[in-house]
Amino acid sequence: MGADRRVAGLVLLLGVVSPGCVSPSMQSDLARVRELTHLPLPQQMAEARDVSTGFPKEVGQLLQQPLTADAAVRIAFLNNRELRASLRDLGVARGQLLQAGVLPNPQVELELRQQEDPSLPFEPQTEIRVEYGLSQAVLSVVRARAARNELEAARYRTAAFVVELGYTVRAAFYAFQAAQQRVAIATQALDAFAAARDASQALFEAGNVPELDVATQDAAYESARATVAQLELEVLERREPLQRLLGLHGEATAWTVTETLPRMAGEEPSFENLERRAVTASLELAETQRRLEGAAQRAGLTRVEGWLPEVSVGVIAERKSPVAPAHGEWEWGGVLHFTVPLFDRRQGTRSAYEAEFDALMERYQGMAIDVRSAAREARNRVQSTALRARQYQQVLLPARQRVMRQTLLQYNAMQLGIFQVLQVRREQLDAELTYVELLREYWTAHAALEALLAGRRTGASMGGPMGAGGPSSLAGGTEAGGH
Amino acid sequence: MDRRSFLKWSGLATGAAMVEQAPGKPPPAQVVAPGGQVGVVTPNGATLPMKRSGKVKVGHLIAGEFEHEFAPGMRALAWGYNGRTPGPTIEVTEGDRVRFYVTNRLPEPTTVHWHGIILPNGMDGVAGLTQRPIPPGETYVYEFTLRHPGTFMYHPHFDEMTQMALGMMGMFIVHPKVPVGPRVDRDFVLMTHEWRLDVGARRPDPNEMTDFNVLTFNSKSFPATEPLLVGKGERVRIRLGNLSAMDHHPIHLHGLSFKLTATDGGYVPPSAQIPETTVLVPVGSTRVIEFVPDEPGDWAMHCHMTHHVMTQMGHDAPNMVGADTRKLDHRMSRVMPDFMTMGTLGMGGMGEMEMAMPPNSLPMRGGPGPFSYIDMGGMFTILKVRDDPDRADPQGWYAHPAGTVAGPASPQQMSADGIDVSDGNPER
Lengths: 483, 428
Ligand SMILES: [Cu+2]
Hints:
The complex is a heterodimer of chains A (483) and B (428). Chain A has helices spanning 2-17, 26-37, 57-64, 69-79, 81-101, 134-205, 211-245, 274-281, 283-307, 347-412, 418-453; strands at residues 107-113, 125-133, 311-319, 330-338. Chain A is an alpha+beta fold and 483 residues long. Chain B is mainly beta. Helices cover 7% and strands 32% of the residues of chain B. Chain B is globular, with a radius of gyration of 24 Å. Chain A binds chain B through residues 188, 191-192, 194-195, 198-199, 202-203, 205-209, 406, 408-422, 425, 482-483, and chain B through 199-200, 312-314, 316-325, 327-328, 331-332, 334-336, 338-343, 347, 350, 355-358, 361, 363-364. The site of copper (II) ion (CU) has 7 residues of chain B, from loops. Chain A: Residues 463-483 are annotated as: Disordered. Chain A: Belongs to the outer membrane factor (OMF) (TC 1.B.17) family. Chain A: InterPro entries: MdtP/NodT-like, OMP_efflux. Chain A: This is TolC family protein.
């Protein structure tokens, strides 16, 4: 059957030029996102999971130990539902890509007609017409290329989400850890207040001080207690955002974190060529670039579409009634179908696409400016927080420690009393409280810079816990009571 | 007449007085003036060497800065003469013509005022009034004849607040040509002084007006004060001079009563010498007392102002006496493990506590005694009365004859004497 072979050949030909295979596997999306983010994204992310079942085994294992920031990020990668959802969202773009590459279907027409000579017995005349839209098949190649850019853009978007999630988890982790550490320090300060209260009480009972001293110390202790209660609430408030980011519920909410924020890194990351590195790494710039390419391809496609006549080729087979004289054999013929692109040259669609491209281009330029600015901002924050935190770590806290040691010596020498010793201790703890807050700012700024260099602007906020109104001092001043 | 009377007061004796005393061991009393008058002993101090130049006795005082040790563990930068505070005791005889070269190695000018001595006005050493101040690095010379015997002092009269607060002062003894009163066997000079040395600081503070915390005899704080070793039955003279900034010192002696025999104004006639056990030495004055001890032993001699026998006492600590601090101690062990509550049982035991201290500080410190820690410090010394003082060890303690030391009462003795402590009130 020569004709069949010919049809098959056409189909084959079109198949060869079609956009090829799209991997339906989410694994390949994940692999690509991993490649883009340079993050060790766990393989399990791409595995389907029943929503009602528990957590991945690894999450359970990680939760056994006090969490570090790295472990928290790992859990979020394994368990954050929004992240899993965005991986699955890639399926939409992937489906669209698949569709764009699919070849148009051939048109088949079957016609049965009455014989021209009505005296003849009924024996219809048959005509089969197979037509194939050639230009659409050719255009689908270009269409698929545009769709592939859209898929790649979507993957960049997901990668950016992953980086941002990593940063958000770190920031939330440090905020919680700092809040917890601050409570521990504040509790010690509270102990110092309680000691001053106990001392004044003992002195009052011995008849050595007036009741005014007891009342003063009592009041100072009680207001310190209110401050500590506020800090305790802050710990709870800081815990929940992390809980949500890690996607934890039920029994898994009993996790703990390592007790203290890590000391500062030995040296700051290199800021050399920072703006260029940030621009190069930027996932949103890359995403927009893909979208620009897609838009360009769509605009180009429309231009081609506008001038390309709608061409379809076909085969016609006709067979007259066998009863008619000299008939009864199949007759073969061809057909060529085309439109004349006289009026509709897709001008509207094309200019819409071109406008979209131009708009996107503007955004792209603006984004590049923003990324450079964000790089400078991130550098300033790291430098400033590092400077302040290092000053506390290397100078101020040791100085406070020296004050404490010398105060104790003066106390031993009976030059100072217990109330002055406790006041100095509270001032020392107050400095530690500020230091913890600086350390939190430092590590948050650090994480923001890392995220930036991994391709994502984060808009890191430097705001302290509980906003500006949070308690930052517990030292108090209870000069009365000492004399 | 004892064997000392055979020693000539001139020649050999004068030469011996020119040798500065070795610290710790007082030299045997030697006759240095007519009528068998023995030389003065300056515990912890020295006598100024005097050279003879024709008919004039010549001495040299160098004013300067040096590190002074008030007691082991408490050192500070002081100012004084010839590297010591008080400066060397000047010891001459009535009628002597003296010439003193004064070299100024201080960072500021100075003068020397010969306190209590009647001399030509231009030799009185008051900067601006009777002379130009001696600039740093220069040497001035004073020369005068001593027309009156007595116990005098010398000190600067330029920025005296600073210079005296830092230790510039000394005693000036003029023996009479003819001894006045009974001959004495021992003649001591003690200069009282008060200082402000902040705990942990390295230089006394001349700005202090009231709150002095280092009180000294001859610029030493007990236990660094050298004891006064005397013989039972010997006649002893103690010359006290006070150049403290603000405080008079009631100096109290145990184990005897004494008579005030002279002031810097002259001799007290025997009819006016009233017996005392405490003599008040006003600021800027000298007082001379004499006594004959007849009870051997180690006798306390100290200023009776209680704060003056406390070294570097602080006033900012709250009164902890009687406070029940068990709850507090428990709390403090959590807040500050190094902290130790003090003073709840009184402060007597403070000096014995071995606690980390700031440098150059001896707060509340006393010294070792033969029975237990002596919890007094500062202006405190010991009069050691011995049967054979010249052979006795000045550092040794008195050996009490059996049954002469207070001790615990036995229940038998108490009940035999009708002492009942069950209700604690003997009047009831
Ligand atoms: Cu006194």
